[in-house]
Amino acid sequence: MDKVELDQVYRGDLERLIDKVVQARGLDLTQYRRPYVERRIAARLRSLNLHTYRQYARALDSDPDEYARLLDTLTINVTDFFRDTPVYELFRSQIVPGIVDTKLRGRHRMIRVWSAGCATGEEAYSLAMSFLDAIGDNASRFVLTILATDIDPSVLETAKLATYDIAKLSHIPEADRHFVDEGPATFTIKREVTSHVKFRVLDLFRDEPVNVVDVVFCRNVFIYFTREQQERVLELFWKALSRDGYLVLGRSEKMSPALSERFEAVSGRERIYRKRPPKS
Ligand SMILES: C[S@@+](CC[C@H](N)C(=O)[O-])C[C@H]1O[C@@H](n2cnc3c(N)ncnc32)[C@H](O)[C@@H]1O
What we know:
Oligomer: single chain
Number of domains: 2
Bound molecules: S-adenosylmethionine
């Protein structure tokens, strides 16, 4: 076989493998950039000491737990409390107090925040702490809900435990540390915070989205998506946001020009945007 033929066999095997994963687990690998999928599968091949996609397809048949390992490899779950200090500084000093004030003046005392791609939950708890801090003595006048979703069920199991390595405690601002119970090696987020956070498995491309939210945090999730998929998800967030709602993206994630009419930049640098009303 010459190189072109070999390349075709290789592509065909990869497509069949991707189909197999979609059929078996409903995990739609076509949503990720192809070179990214290839790199992640290559990592699994290396750790199993395999050389071809066909061998890997057989490994999936003989050990169905391998599907979970593949999902783990694809969805890199790195995260932290108050990740990216400047973003949270702006969010906590301007956006959160603004939302709380508007709600206090209005009739609806419901605050709903969506952490889309929440991984092990640090972002969701950071958001809950930020709002609880701002609400302070007015707590009983609000219904605060953080809807935290991720495609990967295993990270959500960790998130629900709300227990983290003690090394992460220093990433929580001093003022918010009263929300944790500290042990020697780990700390646990108190129930007064966790009771506001609801975790749910949700694939941004396949599942019914969350709706009517004041804020969407979707940070460090877009990086895996193609431009068209980013636009699809931005459109979904626009619909999910209530009037004047905020969208916060990751530092390396830009607003797509195709959607820039729908969102106004509050801070282009920190990737904080506000929903614009539909054009009449
Ligand atoms: C790097 S983590 C980001 C965690 C957190 N948002 C942050 O910025 O620290 C990316 C998360 O996106 C999730 N993810 C990837 N593709 C997804 C999809 N199609 N739908 C929902 N979540 C997805 C992954 O499982 C992973 O937990």
